[in-house]
Amino acid sequence: MREELLSVGIDMGTSTTQLVLSKLHIENMASSFTVPRIVITDKEVVFRSDICFTPMLEDNRIDAQKIKAFVEEQYEKAGIKKDEIQTGAVIITGETARKENANEVLLTLSGFAGDFVVATAGPDLESIISAKGAGAHTYSKEHSTRIVNIDIGGGTSNLALFSSADLIDTGCLDIGGRLIKLDQQTHQITYIAPKIKQLIDLKGLGLSLGQRVTPDDLQPVVQEMVHLLEESVGIRPQSEFYNTIVTNKGLKLDRPIPCISFSGGVADYIYNEATGDVFQYGDVGILLGRAIAESPLFGQMTIVRSVETIRATVVGAGSHTTEISGSTITYTEESFPLKNVPILKLAWSDEEGSEQHLAKAISDKLNWFKLNNDLQRVAVAIEGKKNLSFQEVQKYARGLHAGMAELIEREYPLIIIVRHDMAKVLGQTLYALLNYEKDVVCIDSVLVDNGDYIDIGKPIANGKVLPVVIKTLVFN
Amino acid sequence: MNEKDLKSMIESILADMVGDKVKETAQAPQVAATPQPVTTAPAQPVASATVVSDEILDDITEIDLRKLLLVEDPEDREGYLKMKEKTPARLGVGRAGTRYKTITSLRFRADHAAAQDAVFSYVSEEFIKEMNLVPVQTLCVDKDQYITRPDLGRQFSDETIATIKANTQNKAKVQIMVGDGLSSAAIEANLRNIIPAITQGLKMYGLETGNILFVKHCRVPAMDVIGDVTEADVVCLLVGERPGLVTAESMSAYIAYKPTVGMPEARRSVISNIHSGGTPAVEAGAHIAEMIKNMLERKASGIDLKN
Is B125-306 assigned to CATH 3.40.50.360? Predict the structure, then answer.
């Protein structure tokens, strides 16, 4: 059995917007003599769109209509219809995510770009997606090593640290190629981002709007930006300004990181020598790329060439956001996709005790999800056990049943996400406790945490598995 | 062939499978104590007086081999352990000179012994009673005959067939049976968890299960006879798998739609590797229930079900 999923990735970044179409190949890797094990065996990018500048309206809002027209045009070029798309992600990245109408744009596209395409953004997820698109997590797995990928775009540098394919940490800095813009003809500075302005003032570099500059004039500030990047990966002691430049958080640096890769638009000028005018894009991207190539980042760390540079995020969004649930699961509900369901992940201490303890923990924590006393739809996530007895399954089911009483009253199905392989029996046990009257969706082998949201798509592989996308939303 | 001969025959087959060890023992017979009781030289008298202690040695089979790395000063401990996580193979056992370390040697023999025990022991009568199974047996009279005469392990006496008929519902939708097969340990380890998971799952699909048979000295095709005798639509046999050095507690479920004596093997569906390190018994049970439902719906099993 082989099956294909057509997945779309759309990335709206600070400076550019692009789209890719990927095919995810799905196969049952287990022998015929055991329970199925369905996995994504291959990810193949089948179409890469043109790269356009992210269209902006005059009041600094994203032009949703232009984006929509761009997407339509690219679909036509690729020769596909939007209803052929089964999964994927629309991601608004970098500074763009902070625009007022970002959410509205996502909604416009979400309805447009296929049935199970999700709207998602946020620096953590962006770091992970771009690093996967760049191939860093594959490299860490194949070489059994630790690697940090820095995705340097127009407005932000997103860091993700992987160790043997496991994600260790993410971080984000306000460093990018378009934080200083200048006029291509006159070479006058037209824009300096606030944090970079602070940096210039702090270091007394004396650059200001309207000033006519040469590459040499900009070298000191670009050098400061590179220093901050060196600090972010632990090869230079952290300065006071480091905490200011961090967008939300930096990497925790408890162990040295041997390898580094780069993606994002600036990466092209790190790996390759630029030809022609360094101000051809009217920004400092090329200068930043060159300075990184000459910095200790290159001398002290093993440089890994990324498989994608400027397209890393969009390829990551198209190829690396969809996961497959475990292959023995329970669902009695048929109205997929379920979208944007927030996750309530219980602490291990909640699970260890009696069923009453579990029930109380769930009902207490469900209060977090109440808005004006109204309970939203929530998916309850537990760790579960690796090899448990039928009694233990029943204990879990009774605890969940009692704890989710308030959710049971709602019309939507009960959604349970377990880490260990036990979802089929747990789902069946719960369904029995509910007298087969209330729908249950119980999936396993999916890692989630508090603060995550989950989308669950229509069953694939003869109904054996459900595709899921785990995401973190910055909105709300 | 008596039990001793049989044991030593199996032992030598197993020893062949780990050729290195055989070579080792052959090169240094004075050091390696041969495991075969039949060839062991008389034990040498112990020089000092024996002291009897109440202490109990640690059970070395309790050690999780996947987490045990015996290589001294490995270049990349984390990477090695990560690799070991993915396989039950005895990787990273280190060495003492050109040999295994003592612990590796002992563990190998302990696992080997557990495998043998699983074959030669019986499922206890209390267990059969506790699980409320209806005990019957094939034409084999003992384990030796069971091992050497596979044909007898799939046949029943007329009397036994009468017992089966009397204790089962005729033309049931589902008939579950349990067989000791080559591992009684597998049955005792998994049955308590898998039976309630199967029955609960079947109930969800509106299917009832009647009495469950327990067949002593059972070969897989015994289920075909049960199919003919009970005329059940689906027969599900839970049977102990041939034990290996990874686990002696692995169980399989063989399931067939209207099995009948002489049918092609391709009509059986199999879920194997049900044990604590493989598919958990409860999860397998839930899966089996769904599989049975699909067979009833599509009136097919085995390869026919896949097409």
Answer: no
